UniProtKB/TrEMBL annotation:
This is Four helix bundle protein. InterPro entries: 23S_rRNA-intervening_sequence, 23S_rRNA_IVS_sf. Gene3D superfamilies: 23S rRNA-intervening sequence (1.20.1440.60). CDD domains: 23S_rRNA_IVP_like (cd16377). Pfam families: 23S_rRNA_IVP. It comes from marine sediment metagenome. PANTHER family: FOUR HELIX BUNDLE PROTEIN (PTHR38471).
Length: 117
């Protein structure tokens, strides 16, 4: 852990979420590879990537990157809902992932407050 963003709990939780998504999407139908699978993976990866990139910027810019990461969280929720409706995951797994995203969103709110102080 040589970079400051690697010490952020929200960054590590976001990386864990990415791993969850990669495991989940391995079981998605093959015909979703360039659709839901790709879009969900990209949105999930965008969360920790925005933290890393934003941490190297000014406080104002970092706040903007946090907003983009939160946008990716909302994108993940929407895609997961679609996957649930298509029966690519069960209700229990959906709730577990949605809870993780809710917690990440709350962590971003806290990070934003700490940056603004």
């Amino acid at each position: 852990m040589g970079f400051s963003f690697e010490k952020l709990n929200v960054y590590n939780k976001a990386n864990e979420f990415v791993n969850d998504i990669y495991l989940l999407t391995k079981a998605f139908p093959r015909d979703e590879m360039f659709s839901l699978t790709s879009q969900l993976r990209r949105a999930a990866v965008s969360i920790p990537v925005n933290i890393a990139e934003g941490s190297a910027r000014t406080k104002k810019d970092f706040n903007r990157f946090i907003d983009m990461a939160r946008g990716s969280i909302f994108e993940c929720v929407t895609i997961l809902r679609i996957a649930l409706e298509q029966e690519y995951l069960n209700q229990k797994r959906y709730i577990d992932l949605e809870d993780k995203l809710t917690n990440l969103s709350k962590m971003f709110s806290g990070l934003k407050r700490s940056i603004s102080q």
